[in-house]
Amino acid sequence: MLKIGSVNLDLPFMQASLSGYSDRPMRVLARRFGAPMTFTGVFLDKNAVHLKAAKKLLFAPEGEELPVAGQILGANPATMAAAAAAFEQLGYAFIDLNFACPAPKVLRRGRGGSLLQKPETAIEIFRRVRDKVRCPVTMKLRTGFDSSDASREDFWQLCTLAAEEGVDALFVHGRTVKQKYRGKANWQTVAEVKRRFPDTTVIGSGDLLDAQTAADQITSAAIDGVIIARGAIGNPWIFSELKALLTGEPKPPQPSITEQGEVMLDHFEMIAQTREMIKAVRYFRKFAVNYCRRHPQRKKAQTALMKARNSTEVVTAIKQFYNLA
Questions:
Q1: Is 101 a catalytic residue?
Q2: Catalytic choice (101, 135, 159, 292)
Q3: Strand, coil or helix: what is 142?
Q4: Terminal-to-terminal C-alpha distance of the chain
Q5: Model pLDDT for residues 140-190, shown as the tens digit of each residue
Q6: Where are the alpha helices (DSSP H) in the chain?
Q7: Is the dihedral of CA 50, 53, 58, 60 positive or negative?
Q8: Is this model's pTM higher than 0.85 or not?
């Protein structure tokens, strides 16, 4: 069980928020393969405030993708609170405040990971959001803005304040903001957060590219759960594999070539329902690269999919390389 405020999940993992990836098709596939919950991509607060625009861009969660958590990004407490209220109205299960994003354009505007340097501002955002909504409120953090002593002090101050305020969960990525995605994630610090704040739900992330690593980190770091990010791109099987490892079930067999192709077709068709043809083809390429990693002729399959220029060519390439009639 994984408890996040009033939200109770039967497994201690979920699909992370992935900007540019975790839209409805990816969320649906994650749920089908055993993820008990997924996230939207991160959404800017000033856009989320406008319910009509948010409904159009986010596609209010529904059907088999439920439950879904919403993640918002911003620096103004009042705007973040209004955005959180809009997300709650759209039906998201809880609100995650992004104080971790390392994108330069985000940092230049004082959002995301830059707020790790301003613990008091971050906690004021949390307070205003919590007062505005009834659903759980969580925080996404990195282990500091950089590796300096001052940055580490800011990180621990924010963790302390969040724990004292009763944050429903801390999602901690084991890298600093300055590291972006370079080097290895520091799971020792993730584990230390849980040791210091045993009554706070702590969920870790970073370098969880396969199910075994994710299962091992839950145990070795003694944390409450994990979120799977890059490891889930073009690989929804990671969730069924992780579920088996954590519940003591036999490990599922590797998906056959045919099963891989069927999932890819399903994924592409869902994307094509929400995007214009050429945009759908280009967007699917990001997933196809990872899907092809399981193929015995990876380079040939990937090249064919990268060369596809329309939906017919995408479907033809999948059927050709994945033994589908």
A1: yes
A2: 101
A3: strand
A4: 42
A5: 999 999 999 999 999 999 999 999 999 999 999 999 999 999 999 999 999
A6: 24-32, 45-48, 51-58, 77-90, 104-108, 119-132, 149-165, 187-196, 211-220, 237-247, 257-272, 277-291, 298-307, 311-321
A7: positive
A8: yes
